[in-house]
Structures are given as C-alpha cells and as structure tokens.
Specification:
alpha/beta; about 20% strand; CinA-like_C; five-stranded mixed β-sheet
C-alpha cells in the first residue's frame, strides 16, 4: 500500500525521533494524510506521531490550523506564507508535538497555472524553540510521483529540524 522507499525513510525518521524524544504533527494538503499514514505504518510510531491535520480545503486550513484568510486570499493556498502558517498553526494546536511539517501543492494532473505549475509544492517545518524553515520545489512526474517526492522531502525537513536541537 505504501511505497517501500517511503516506509524505509519513515522507519529511519521514527528511530531518530524516538532517540531524541521528539513528537511530530503534520498539516497536509496535497498529500491528503499520506505523511502521517506513512509514519504510522511503522511499528512504534505511537511514541513519535502526535497528530495529523488533513487540510485540503482553504476552510479547513483556516478553521483547523488557523491559517489567516488574508494569507489565503493574497497568496493562494499553494504559497510560502501559507505553508509557514500551516506548520506553525499545527505546532501550536498539537497537544504534544515538538515538530510540525506542512505541505501544500499541486499534485496534478490538472490544476496548474503558469505561475503555479503542476508539481509545485511548498513546505514548512516548525519546531519548539527553533526557527521555522520553508522550502519549495517543482517535482516531475505524475500525481503518484509528486506525492511520493513530497512525503520524502517532508521527512528530510523533519530530519533537518532534528539536527537543530
């Protein structure tokens, strides 16, 4: 069900988080819960995964994790300011998380524009007592490839946040 590459990366991340006493929250749009689902597919994830927010709609982004309607209107859901607000909002609302990652993008095959092409994903990663980081990339491939690349990059950003401690 979940790609072997993703499961291997999730297992490594779970081990690192356990060793460092960190708990993760996610705020997902284009992955629809795949990041959280991949983490929880690994044995022992309950000591590392706090919660996941699937915020596919703008209304969910606003009501569940506090993304300002002004940001959504000014920049659109697929943007750096929204990715930042998503991870910071998830970290604030998650009861036990010390790190939160967010993803918002256009997985395709439709929905892209000249300024926001299919494959564009914005990421945010926030940690307690750490600086929030953002990143974006345009991934190649079909919907499956974009979502897989997004999950793997999200794991990488969480790993980088662990290095900040």
């Amino acid at each position: 069900m979940i790609d072997d590459d993703i499961l291997k990366a999730a297992s490594v991340l779970i081990t690192r988080c356990k060793a460092q006493g960190e708990m993760i929250a996610t705020a997902e749009s284009c992955t629809g819960g795949l990041i959280t689902g991949s983490l929880t597919a690994v044995d022992g994830s309950s000591s590392v995964v706090d919660c996941g927010f699937v915020t596919y709609s703008n209304e969910a982004k606003h009501h569940l994790i506090g993304v300002g309607n002004d940001l959504l209107e000014q920049f659109g859901a697929v943007s750096e300011p929204v990715a930042r607000a998503m991870c910071e909002g998830a970290l604030e609302r998650a009861p036990n998380a010390s790190i939160a990652v967010s993803v918002t993008g256009i997985a395709g095959p439709g929905g892209g524009t000249d300024t926001k092409p299919v494959g564009l994903v914005h990421f945010g990663c926030a940690g307690k007592d750490r600086s929030t980081v953002t990143y974006h990339e345009v991934f190649d491939g079909d919907r499956h490839a974009v979502r897989k690349a997004t999950v793997l990059k999200a794991f990488e950003l969480i790993s980088d946040m662990l290095d900040q401690k």
